[in-house]
Every structure is written in C-alpha cells, then in structure tokens.
Amino acid sequence: MKFDFDLLQQETDALSLAYFRVPWDSDIFGFPVAQISRISVADPAQALLDMPPFRAWMEQEQIRLASCRLAHNRLRESMLLEQIGFRFVEMVLHPHLSDLQAFSCAPQGLDVVRADASDLPEIEAIAAQAFGYERFHADPRLDRELADHRYLVWVRNSHVHARQNLYKICDGSDLVAFFITENQPDGESYWHLTAIAPAFQGRGYGKRVWREMLHFHQREGMTSVGTTIAGGNTPVLNLYASLGFRFRPPEITLHWLRDA
C-alpha cells in the first residue's frame, strides 16, 4: 500500500483498490467519512482475503460511513463489497446532450445570472429543501437533516469554487431555480446541482428553466451538456428524456455504515 497525497492505494493480483477520507462530508456529518474511488476484482475469493488492510484502515480512522460508486455491471466488485457490509442505496443515471449547438431552444423569458454573495441565503434555503432522492436522503440510516445541510453547504462552497459556477434563474424579481455548473475543456458544461425552488415547483417552470440554461450554454459556445441524477427521481428523468437527452450507462452507489 502506498500513500499518494490523501489517496491510499492497494494492489494485489486479485484486487486493485483506492480510497480516501472525505474531509468535506466528515465536517458536515460530524464523523469520519470515506470513499472508495477505484475497485477492480480479478479473483473474488482471493480479493476477499486481501481486504483486511482496507478494513484495518477503516477501524484505525474510525470511519463511520464509506461509499462507493460502480458501473451497474461491476457485479464482482459489488458482491465483494456486500460481503464486507456495504449495501446498495441508489442507482444514478447520466443524461447527456451531445450536440448542443444543433439543439433548438429559444429563450424562455427567464434571466440566468451569476449569483453573488447577497443571493446565497435564498439559494441555500432552496438547496436545504429541494432534494430528496439522492443517496444521503435515500439511505434510511442517515439523518435527513444532515443530508439537507450537505446541499446547503455545497451551494455555499460553489460560490467561491475555482471552477464551479453558481447561477440563479429568475422570472422577473422571483428567484425560481439555481444551477451549479462547470465548463470543461472539451466544451461540455457539467451540471453538478440543479433545483427548482419548492415554491415554484408544479407551476410549469421545469422545462422552461432547463431550456433557458441550454440556450445560455449555446450562447457561451459550449458543445454538450452532461449531468447525474438519482434513478428514483422520475419527474426529472422524464424531463431530460422530453428534452432529447440520451442516457449513458448507469451506476450504482453502495454505503457501508458502522453499527448499521
């Protein structure tokens, strides 16, 4: 095992594994949180015998929550993790619009504006209420209030992030939605976090807001848009399908929780 900055890596003939402690989630939840960033199993039986160093590190660090996201067909890896106590909590989908410049999306009469510090309290309040399908909400063993707080903090951090952009979408004086985006060098705009304000949900803003954002990125010169959504969020899934997004292969998320 070697230490590479904050990343621990373990390589054997049967198992390739990389994991790290997640400082931002550890701060939010108030206990140590870890993430497996890479796992590959060549020999399931031997790989299980090779797991003790990882489990010893989890004990040493007093990790209480660990997560791993895998391609949906990585069954050897998911079964190995289940053998040591990980549990499935969600499937995520990856909507993608590949030819943005050819997409027909007229302006929707909404304003897309870079948020400033004075907007943060209102946007943070939206973020604390707007989510309910994602993995921290889906896992019944976790405190939903802490899950809400995680998205609030994400908004706050995005405002000063070097690469992420926090936008508010307004209808006149009303702030109806926010998007956290990141423009990639290859011309893709990745949508990290998107939400309609609860007070404006069910009022026909979904497709208008998403079309306005696509029009905004067209004018920026971006060539594609990608994002990740929880598989259980069928209203948003249907929204992306209606806009012509295509879906890349899904992934599954597994959680390990101490004393679960």
Task: Please give a structural write-up.
This protein is an alpha+beta fold and 260 residues long. The protein has 2 domains: 2-85, Aminopeptidase, CATH 3.40.630.30; 96-249, 3-Layer(aba) Sandwich (Aminopeptidase), CATH 3.40.630.30. It has 9 helices and 13 strands. The chain has helices spanning 23-29, 44-49, 52-60, 75-83, 120-130, 135-138, 144-158, 205-220, 234-242; strands at 2-4, 7-11, 15-21, 33-41, 65-71, 87-97, 111-114, 165-171, 174-183, 188-196, 224-227, 229-230, 246-257. Strands 1, 2, 3, 4, 5, 6, 7, 8, 9, 10, 11, 12 and 13 form a 13-stranded mixed beta sheet that branches. Helix 5 (120-130) runs antiparallel to helix 7 (144-158). The longest helix has 16 residues, at 205-220. The protein starts with a strand and ends with a strand.
CATH class of the largest domain: Alpha Beta
Major sheet attributes: 13 strands, mixed
First-to-last CA distance:
28 Å
Globally, the shape reads globular
Q: If classified by CATH, what would the architecture of the largest domain be?
A: 3-Layer(aba) Sandwich
Strand content is: 25-35%
What helical percentage do the residues reach?
25-40%
- In CATH terms, what is the fold-level topology of the largest domain? Aminopeptidase
Radius of gyration: 20 Å
How many domains? The number is: 2
User: Residue-averaged pLDDT, rounded?
Assistant: 95
- Total strands: the figure is 13
> Structural class, from secondary structure content?
alpha+beta
Q: Please, what is the CATH homologous superfamily of the largest domain?
A: Gcn5-related N-acetyltransferase (GNAT)
Order of helices and strands: EEEHEHHEHEEHHHEEEHEEHE
Low-confidence stretches: 1-5
